[in-house]
């Protein structure tokens, strides 16, 4: 039976994971068991609540996205048996009530949030930077529909995978891309000049495996 809420289930390692039941690995000698410790309830149904999460060990907070809500929630995991709402970050300045986050990443006190823009998320997207207490730092422009964020291991760069999803009517189909944000200036000083976006147009003239499907009016590999 579907529950009427989305749940964030905490593992013994204090990392958030959405699980229905404890999961045990196939080999007994190398098994991993996920033990639910606590549950955080959003009281939202069928809205992509708590869709993506990023855990910050410094503040012991999990930052979570909502597919249809203009906000990020930070969940306090200091007591993993009783997770609670620490703060809410408003994303409406970057899209109004239709603003939503598609990914989050956190490192060294900096929270990066991917926020798509435009009709059907087809305009160049934004990455908005906050500190882990929800204070706005900066915003930069990346490719269309940034759908995944990650910091490099040394924290020097933030990478975004930009999906480039077409509009529902296919009147506009942006190209997919990867954006690289140079963090050298510090998160509070970032501008669009710190962003490099790489596309895939170089592959448009390259023969592709016939098993790969490229479809839609005017579509290309890129």
Shape: globular
Q: Main β-sheet, in a few words?
A: 4 strands, antiparallel
Estimated share of beta-strand residues: 35-45%
Q: Structural class of the helix and strand makeup?
A: mainly beta
**CATH class value of the domain at 50-203:** Mainly Beta
CATH fold annotation of the domain at 50-203: Methylamine Dehydrogenase, Chain H
At the fourth level of CATH, the homologous superfamily of the domain at 50-203 is YVTN repeat-like/Quinoprotein amine dehydrogenase
Can you describe this structure?
With 222 residues, the chain is mainly beta. The chain has a domain at 50-203: Methylamine Dehydrogenase, Chain H (7 Propeller). Helix content is 0%, strand content 40%. The protein has strands spanning 7-10, 16-17, 39-41, 49-56, 61-66, 71-76, 84-90, 103-107, 110-117, 123-131, 136-144, 146-151, 157-162, 177-182, 195-198. A four-stranded antiparallel β-sheet has the order 4-5-6-7, with no helix packed on it. It has a four-stranded antiparallel β-sheet with strand order 8-9-10-11, with no helix packed on it. The protein has a four-stranded antiparallel β-sheet with strand order 12-13-14-15, with no helix packed on it. A hairpin with a 4-residue loop joins β4 (49-56) and β5. The radius of gyration is 19 Å and the shape is globular.
Topology:
Layout: E1 7-10, E2 16-17, E3 39-41, E4 49-56, E5 61-66, E6 71-76, E7 84-90, E8 103-107, E9 110-117, E10 123-131, E11 136-144, E12 146-151, E13 157-162, E14 177-182, E15 195-198
Task: Report a brief summary of the structure.
By secondary structure, the chain is mainly beta.
């Amino acid at each position: 039976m579907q529950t009427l809420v989305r749940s964030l289930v905490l593992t013994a390692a204090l990392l958030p994971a959405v699980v229905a039941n404890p999961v045990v690995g196939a080999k007994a000698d190398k098994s991993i068991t996920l033990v639910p410790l606590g549950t955080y309830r959003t009281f939202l149904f069928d809205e992509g609540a708590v869709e993506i999460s990023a855990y910050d060990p410094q503040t012991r907070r999990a930052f979570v996205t909502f597919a249809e809500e203009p906000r990020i929630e930070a969940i306090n995991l200091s007591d993993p048996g009783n997770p609670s709402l620490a703060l809410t970050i408003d994303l409406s300045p970057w899209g109004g009530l239709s603003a939503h986050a598609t990914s989050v990443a956190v490192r060294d006190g900096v929270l990066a949030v991917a926020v798509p823009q435009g009709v059907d998320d087809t305009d160049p997207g934004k990455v908005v930077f906050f500190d882990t207490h929800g204070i706005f730092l900066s915003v930069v422009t990346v490719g269309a529909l940034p759908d995944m964020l990650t910091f490099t291991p040394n924290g020097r760069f933030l990478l975004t995978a930009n999906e480039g999803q077409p509009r529902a009517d296919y009147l506009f189909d942006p190209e997919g891309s990867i954006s690289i944000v140079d963090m050298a200036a510090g998160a509070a000083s970032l501008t669009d000049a710190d962003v490099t976006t790489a596309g895939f147009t170089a592959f448009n003239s390259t023969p592709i495996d016939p098993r790969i499907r490229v479809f839609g009016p005017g579509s290309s590999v890129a």
